C-alpha cells in the first residue's frame, strides 16, 4: 500500500477543504520570531584537537587503498590553519588527483631521507570553530609491499592547528609537527592487511535491512562475490555459508525437497519454488547442504549457538584480478529449522536438506515486541599460488549479512529532497510504502 502526501511552499495561507484519503496539501509559512539570548556557561579548558584516521582493514594484493583523515575541534575556541600530514607505508605512493574534496588540492609530497617513506602535507586546510570538523580523503598505490599477501601496512598521520590566525603549522621531514609552529596537535595510526582473496555478501528484497517473512512471496536473493588479488591465482576455492535457523535455504528458487509432495507450509500454500525463479548461471549447485548445531569457530568466525544450515560450494580457481559470483534464494519460514527430521534425513551431499520443510518444527518466526535479527556468515578458503616458500599458502576471507524479521514494513521517501530557492519546484511529494508478509 502506498500513501502519497504533498507539501506545497507558499507565501500566503489557505485553508484545506476535505480531500482524498491519501492526499494532503500543507501550507509552509515563513515565520519571524525572537530567540532569547542563550545562556553562556563559564569557559572551560579546551581539549586538544582530535584526529581520526580511517583505513581499510584489508586490501587485495596489487590494489589501491583509500585513507581518510578527520580533525575535530571539541573545544570552545576557534582553531586556525588546521594542517595535516600523512606518512605513507613503505613503498606506497600518493595517487595524484584522488583528493576528496577536490578543493583541498594535491598535498605537498616529499620523501623522508631516513626511511624513504613518502610524506604528504596539506597546509592551512581550514579553520575550525567549536564542535566543527574537516576531512580529507585520498588514495595510494601500495607498491611491492602491497603485493605480498600477509603484510601489514602501517600508516601514521598528524594534525596541527594554531590559536594565532597568522601562523601556519609546519611539519618536519618525518611528517611530525614542528614545535613552536602550532598550539594544538594530534596523531593517529591505522593498519591494513594485504590479502589474497575477498568475499562480500549482499541480498535483495530487504530495504533498510528489513526482510518480510515468507518463503513464497518474500524470497530474497543472496549474492556472494569472490574477488581474487591482482598478483597471482588462487586455486581450489571453496565457499561456505551458514544460514541461521530462521532462514530457509531455497537453492535456486526452483525446487521443493519436502516429502511427501502433498506437505506444504500451510493449508492452501503452493510448493516451495513456485513460482520458479531464474537466477541464471551464477546459481551454482552446492556440493553439500547440511543442518548443524553449534558449529565450532572457523576462519576466525565465532558462531552464536544454535541450529544452522551449512551450505558449501566449490568455486574452483580464480586468476589474478578475476571475480566470481554465487547466488542463491532464501526466505523466512513460519517456523525455524531444527536438527530433527520427519522421515529419513537426506544426506548432506544430496543437497536435499535445503528447500525442505521436513525439519521446520522449531519456534515461530513471528515478529515480536523485541525485534529479532538473522545473521548468516560466509567464508572463502583457497590456496594462494604466490605465497613465499615456507609460508602458509592458505587464503581466507569472511563476511556476514544481517536482516531483521518483519511482519509489517513501512518506508518513507520524499522528492525532491529540498525546495528550490530560485523559483523552481515548490511541491514535495512524500510517499509512504507499507508492505506486509
Explain how this protein is built.
With 437 residues, this protein is mainly β. The chain contains no helices and 24 strands. It has strands at 2-9, 25-28, 50-54, 58-60, 64-72, 79-87, 93-94, 108-111, 118-128, 133-141, 152-162, 184-195, 197-203, 210-212, 220-228, 234-244, 248-249, 288-293, 307-318, 323-331, 373-384, 394-406, 408-415, 427-436. A six-stranded mixed β-sheet has the order 4-12-11-6-9-8, with no helix packed on it. It has a six-stranded mixed β-sheet with strand order 14-22-21-16-19-18, with no helix packed on it. Strand 8 (108-111) and strand 9 form a beta hairpin. The chain is globular. The two termini are 12 Å apart.
| Count of separate DSSP helical elements | 0
- H/E element string? EEEEEEEEEEEEEEEEEEEEEEEE
Under the CATH scheme, the architecture of the largest domain is Sandwich
Unreliable segments (pLDDT under 50, ≥5 consecutive)? 6-46
What's the CATH class of the largest domain, please? Mainly Beta
Supply the helix-strand structural class: mainly beta
The order of strands across the largest sheet is: 4-12-11-6-9-8
Number of domains: 3
The backbone outline, from C-alpha atoms, is globular
Q: Which percent bin holds the helix content?
A: under 10%
Roughly what is the average pLDDT, rounded to an integer? 88
Q: From the alpha-carbon coordinates, what is the Rg to the nearest angstrom? A: 29 Å
CATH topology of the largest domain: Immunoglobulin-like
How large is the share of residues in beta strands?
Answer: 35-45%
How many strand units? 24
The H-level CATH homologous superfamily of the largest domain, spelled out, is ntegrin, alpha v. Chain A, domain 3
